[in-house]
């Protein structure tokens, strides 16, 4: 199959390599001709995934028309806040190829999930699926065994994408809960930032386990209110991705939190991140607003919002969470 991957960030690159391993004809598109040429010269994505040679068969391009001409599948890995722009470009090119989104987030300006943005731009009948789960690019590129989940309203597409990506190192499950799968991948980034704050403050394993467990309750509660199934949050895109992101040295979201915990300002943190994306910062704002709109109790998300956007100190936020009224664990 011809497969086009939009955006040569670290995740698009790692997935493109997996697709090359599976003998597909893979085209990795960059928005910058200059960067695409520089990668071609080195055969390495030296900015986003340094140290790994790109497969010989991988085509690098900044020409969108060529990249998507007669393609069978478009994988979108554009950061969430820019994905609308990518989809608009695809609409201009009148693309009919199915979209497989692998980005994780909720758009701040519309509070929409990426499936909703895609329906709005390309139409409800445009084939769309989401592929997410606990998966760091730095590990997949080294063939470390990884499991993810694909979900779609189009059953044939979920099965096709499962088949296209699966190999001995990359196991793909299907799920019928598109809303839950998308939200699991998006919401876990908020708690990954909080987990990093715990690391930055020098707090311990007890604190992080409490955060992850109660964070999972909040994801499921908000996810259910928005139309997802509670069980999905105990799967790969919920608890699975929460575990990997809250505990990994690779996670950008966790490291944003760690820097916050150590006292750096958001401006300094953004400068350190450079071109890399930590989706949880924007998704915290979207999730906070959705929770208010749907009247869902999400105290950890609220505190993350206040720390990120209202200058509340992390210590105050933790103290507030620990001294709330006594509760029953499940209600
Ligand atoms: N890196 C990883 O291990 C994983 C990342 N993801 C998700 O994949 C998505 C992409 O993340 P990464 O590949 O990690 O990104 P990255 O941090 O490696 O690279 C940033 C990407 O964003 C693009 N970008 C920056 N500003 C832009 C703009 N104004 N317009 C369009 N594109 C812009 C850059 O060109 C680059 O391709 C995110 O939603 C992330 O949550 C999902 C699973 C794993
Ligand atoms: O989603 C990811 C792992 O599943 C990547 O997490 P970060 O964006 O925090 O690096």
From TrEMBL:
The record, for Pfam families, names: NAD_Gly3P_dh_C, NAD_Gly3P_dh_N
Could you tell me which residue ranges the Glycerol-3-phosphate dehydrogenase NAD-dependent N-terminal domain spans?
Answer: 2-153
Catalysis: reaction(s): sn-glycerol 3-phosphate + NADP(+) = dihydroxyacetone phosphate + NADPH + H(+); sn-glycerol 3-phosphate + NAD(+) = dihydroxyacetone phosphate + NADH + H(+)
Biological or metabolic pathway of the protein: Membrane lipid metabolism; glycerophospholipid metabolism
Q: Which residues bind NADPH?
A: 10-11, 31, 48, 104, 137, 252, 277, 279
Q: Where does substrate bind?
A: 104, 252-253
Q: Identify the catalytic residues.
A: 188
Instruction: From the Swiss-Prot or TrEMBL record, state where the protein is found.
Output: Cytoplasm
Judged by the first EC level, this protein's enzyme class is: oxidoreductase
Biological process annotations from GO: carbohydrate metabolic process; glycerol-3-phosphate biosynthetic process; glycerol-3-phosphate catabolic process; glycerophospholipid metabolic process; phospholipid biosynthetic process
Indicate which residues the UniProt annotation says bind sn-glycerol 3-phosphate: 104, 133, 135, 188, 241, 251-253
Superkingdom in the source lineage? Bacteria
Gene Ontology cellular-component annotations: cytosol
Keyword Protein transport in record: no
PROSITE patterns, per database record:
NAD_G3PDH
**Which parts of the sequence belong to the Glycerol-3-phosphate dehydrogenase NAD-dependent C-terminal domain?**
177-318
EC id: 1.1.1.94
Q: Name one GO molecular function term.
A: glycerol-3-phosphate dehydrogenase (NADP+) activity
Q: Which residues bind NAD(+)?
A: 137, 252
Which InterPro entries does this UniProt record tie to the protein? 6-PGluconate_DH-like_C_sf (IPR008927), 6PGD_dom2 (IPR013328), G3P_DH_NAD-dep (IPR006168), G3P_DH_NAD-dep_C (IPR006109), G3P_DH_NAD-dep_N (IPR011128), NAD(P)-bd_dom_sf (IPR036291)
Q: Which UniProt keywords apply?
A: Cytoplasm, Lipid biosynthesis, Lipid metabolism, NAD, NADP, Nucleotide-binding, Oxidoreductase, Phospholipid biosynthesis, Phospholipid metabolism
Role played: Catalyzes the reduction of the glycolytic intermediate dihydroxyacetone phosphate (DHAP) to sn-glycerol 3-phosphate (G3P), the key precursor for phospholipid synthesis.
Q: What family, per the record?
A: Belongs to the NAD-dependent glycerol-3-phosphate dehydrogenase family.
What is the protein name given in its UniProt record?
Glycerol-3-phosphate dehydrogenase [NAD(P)+]
Organism ancestry: Bacteria, Pseudomonadati, Lentisphaerota, Lentisphaeria, Lentisphaerales
- State the gene name recorded for this protein: gpsA
């Amino acid at each position: 199959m011809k497969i086009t991957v939009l955006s040569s960030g670290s995740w698009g690159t790692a997935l493109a390599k997996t697709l090359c391993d599976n003998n597909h004809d893979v085209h990795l598109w960059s928005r910058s001709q200059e960067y695409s040429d520089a990668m071609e010269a080195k055969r390495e994505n030296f900015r986003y995934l340094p140290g790994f040679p790109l497969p010989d068969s991988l085509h690098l391009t900044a020409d969108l028309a060529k990249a998507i001409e007669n393609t069978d599948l478009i994988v979108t890995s554009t950061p969430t806040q820019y994905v609308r722009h990518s989809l608009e470009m695809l609409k201009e090119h009148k693309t009919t190829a199915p979209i497989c989104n692998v980005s994780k987030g909720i758009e701040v300006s519309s509070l929409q999930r990426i499936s909703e943005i895609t329906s709005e731009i390309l139409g409800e009948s445009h084939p769309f699926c989401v592929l997410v789960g606990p998966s760091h690019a730095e590990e997949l590129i080294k063939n470390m065994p990884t499991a993810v989940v694909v979900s779609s309203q189009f059953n044939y597409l979920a099965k096709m994408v499962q088949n296209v990506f699966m190999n001995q190192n990359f196991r793909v499950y299907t799920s019928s809960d598109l809303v839950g799968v998308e939200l699991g991948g998006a919401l876990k980034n908020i708690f990954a930032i909080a987990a990093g704050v715990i690391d930055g403050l020098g707090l311990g394993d007890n604190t992080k386990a409490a955060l992850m467990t109660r964070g999972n309750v909040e994801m499921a509660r908000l996810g259910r209110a928005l139309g997802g199934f509670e069980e999905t949050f105990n799967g790969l895109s919920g608890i699975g991705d929460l575990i990997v992101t809250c505990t990994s040295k690779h996670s950008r979201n966790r490291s944003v939190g760690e820097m916050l915990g150590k006292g750096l300002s958001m401006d300094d943190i953004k400068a350190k991140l450079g071109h890399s994306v930590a989706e949880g910062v924007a998704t915290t704002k979207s999730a906070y607003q959705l929770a208010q709109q749907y009247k869902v109790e999400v105290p950890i998300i609220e505190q993350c919002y206040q720390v990120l956007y209202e200058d509340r100190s992390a210590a105050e936020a933790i103290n507030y969470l620990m001294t709330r009224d006594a509760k029953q664990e499940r209600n």
